Write a sequence for this structure.
């Protein structure tokens, strides 16, 4: 059986993962509206990944006989200044999620919940990847600067991102 404290904390994290999915979906829509379909595609894949993270947590609670309680998802921002602004926000958002995952892991250690620790180790590794991915796009955008041709090339590059 899953400890109540862990169950509640995981339910909270399920909301954060759905919230991430929602945030990236909103960003994807922004890129569609600014004619950058490659960026929009990259964020659509990101959004779906976050949805799958939420389900991973959901399944953990279910498998251990716990109760899933879904919480409200905050309304995401719909307006952004430019591609760099969006990608910086992706990176900041992932840093926040990393801190949440680490806090959840600390709780699982404190409560001696070993199954939750094992499950969360996957998330800890995943967060390293998530921050790296966002940072790579930020670096590329900084190299491109104000050059429209560079931005179009980068958009094509991001259009090639495959779903995991
Ligand atoms: Mg996630």
């Amino acid at each position: 059986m899953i400890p109540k404290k862990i169950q509640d904390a995981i339910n909270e994290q399920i909301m954060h993962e759905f919230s991430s999915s929602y945030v990236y979906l909103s960003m994807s829509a922004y890129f569609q509206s600014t004619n950058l379909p490659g960026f929009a595609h990259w964020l659509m894949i990101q959004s779906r990944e976050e949805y799958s993270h939420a389900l991973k947590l959901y399944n953990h609670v279910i498998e251990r006989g716990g109760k899933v309680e879904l919480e409200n998802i905050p309304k995401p921002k719909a307006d952004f200044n430019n591609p760099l602004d969006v990608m910086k926000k992706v990176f900041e958002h992932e840093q926040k999620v990393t801190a949440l995952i680490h806090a959840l892991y600390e709780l699982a250690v404190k409560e001696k919940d070993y199954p939750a620790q094992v499950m969360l180790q996957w998330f800890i590794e995943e967060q390293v990847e998530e921050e790296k991915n966002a940072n790579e796009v930020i670096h590329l955008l900084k190299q491109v600067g104000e050059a429209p041709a560079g931005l179009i090339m980068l958009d094509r590059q991001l259009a090639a991102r495959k779903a995991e």
Notes: The pocket of magnesium ion is lined by residues 17, 20, 50, 53, 97 (CB under 6 Å).
